[in-house]
């Protein structure tokens, strides 16, 4: 738990979020500023600052995160495709330094991402 972390505050219930899933390790909720018709975030409860802070001990956790993201995409009816994104570092667009995976879908995506 990091005191000033927005996502830790969502985990603690200090900031409201539309929860889509939660268990002892991870939770998922809708992004407050959706960049696609479906835009969900999947995060670990553990405060990890980003992908580059993952340790070997976190490998099962990150696997669980990706699996939940794909399950939620299926549940949201994203049969045409969806995108899983993790930004690492400011120049990559990371703004919240609590590891999270974006699940985006419901529109055609461009490649490469900007
Ligand atoms: P990043 O830019 O770090 O990859 O993604 C952070 C994401 O968190 C952004 O898409 C942003 O809209 C979302 N976000 C920031 N603050 C909040 C919040 O208070 N609630 C929710 N649900 N999403 C947030
Ligand atoms: Zn945090």
Task: Explain the overall architecture.
- The protein has one domain (2-105): HIT-like (HIT family, subunit A, 2-Layer Sandwich), CATH 3.30.428.
- A hairpin with a 3-residue loop joins strand 1 (19-22) and strand 2.
- The model has no long low-confidence stretch (mean pLDDT 97).
- The chain has helices at 6-12, 59-75, and strands at residues 19-22, 26-30, 38-44, 82-85, 101-105.
- 20% of the residues are buried.
- It has a five-stranded antiparallel sheet with strand order 1-2-3-5-4, with helices on one face.
- The chain has 114 residues and is α+β, with helices and mostly antiparallel strands.
- The structure holds guanosine-5'-monophosphate and zinc ion (ZN).
- Zinc ion binds next to helix 1.
Structural key phrases:
alpha+beta; binds zinc ion; 114 residues; binds guanosine-5'-monophosphate; 5-stranded antiparallel beta sheet; single chain; HIT family, subunit A
- Name the CATH homologous superfamily: HIT-like
Q: How many domains?
A: 1
CATH architecture term: 2-Layer Sandwich
Low-pLDDT parts are none
The neighbouring-strand order within the major sheet is 1-2-3-5-4
- Level of helix content? 10-25%
Structural class: alpha+beta
Q: What characteristic shape results from the CA principal axes?
A: globular
Radius of gyration: 14 Å
How many strand elements? 5
Distinct ligands: guanosine-5'-monophosphate, zinc ion
The CATH topology: HIT family, subunit A
Instruction: Assign the CATH class.
Output: Alpha Beta
């Amino acid at each position: 738990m990091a005191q000033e972390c927005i996502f830790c505050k969502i985990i603690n219930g200090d900031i409201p979020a539309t929860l889509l899933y939660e268990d002892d390790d991870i939770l998922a909720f809708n992004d407050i500023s959706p960049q696609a018709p479906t835009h969900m975030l999947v995060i670990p409860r553990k405060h990890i600052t980003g992908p580059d802070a993952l340790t070997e001990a976190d490998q099962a956790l990150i696997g669980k995160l990706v699996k939940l993201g794909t399950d939620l995409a299926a549940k949201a009816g994203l049969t045409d495709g969806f995108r899983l994104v993790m930004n690492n570092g400011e120049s990559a667009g990371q703004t919240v330094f609590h590891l999270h995976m974006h699940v985006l879908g419901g529109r055609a995506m461009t490649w490469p991402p900007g």
